[in-house]
Write the structure tokens for this entry.
Amino acid sequence: MGDKTIDIKKVFLLAGALAAYWIGSGFATGQEALQFFAVYGIKGIAGGIVFLVIMGIITYILYGAGQKNKFANPYDVFEYYCGKVLGQIYIWYSLTLIYCIFVVMLAGGGATINQYYNLPTYMGTAVIGVLALGTALLGVEKLIDIIGVIGPVKIVFLAIIGIAGLSLLYGTPHLLAEADSAMPNLGFKAASSNWLWSAVLYAFLALIVSIPFQVNCGASANRVKEARMAGILGTIAFAAAIILLVIGEMVYYKLIINQQVPTLAIAKDISPLLGLLFSILIVVSIYSAVASFLLMVVRKFAVDKTKKFNIIATVLTMVGIFCGGIIPFDELVNILYPIAGYSAIVFFAFMLFKELKMKIIAKD
């Protein structure tokens, strides 16, 4: 392969891996798209574009930085941008947040399997935990290969809901205006009182939990241009999923009132078979995100595929499975998420400062 050749398969795998990483249980169920975007009506679609612009810039920078610097440990990116002291604070905060979300997802996975398949919750949590552990033990490259394929599958399934909504809208165009006026008054939870801030907050929440992962993906690319293409493509795919899901939730808004899993309610209405496939998709979404989050936590302490890595990964998984059934995670998330959003905005400011400084130095 020549110096200037772009490996298209690698670009799609790395883009798919990012989409799969972001599409966890909250997004696959439709709750994130509902609370951060759809609840604001048509403005929620504009929010999806705001997310694309912010995250497009961020992934371009982070994937490129990962490829150029090839950090020995992906968490080194925090010191790279913020300096030693603040960098260490970010490292431990990010680590805590990612592990907490890992446990939240395990608990959510157990509840999902219990709800759809009538298996005991602890059994569902254990099954997803063990599958995620097995995937993480294969190492970062294998994980990217696996979830890089799963990512586009998730996007396609979520796009079906949006496409079904668009086709329904084609015959009854007044539905969008009707939904636009109805959505804010139906009792749905909203992430913020303002649609624009909600979109910005969602972008920075996505940033703070994916910084080490994006750096790892960038390092896996063969060259900087390839890495940046993958980052942008993954962000476009995810933003498209947001917008299509928002349209679907607006068009089918009567179906999703008081529904914990909006996507499943819509999918069942479109087709019982699609409903069944969506129940599987949600479990797969949780599994792939859990495996990615676990690997990112353990990579702080050990290189993948080593004995030390395997032991730490196993212990953290066992602790996660145990805690998944006893800690009130709604309170934990309520405390961690707002702080996460603000801390990510500060980190982004440091990123931009460092990148601009390096460009000025390079010109001089």
Summary: The mean pLDDT is 88. The chain has one domain: 12-325+341-354. The first helix runs from residue 8 to 22. The chain has 16 helices and no strands.
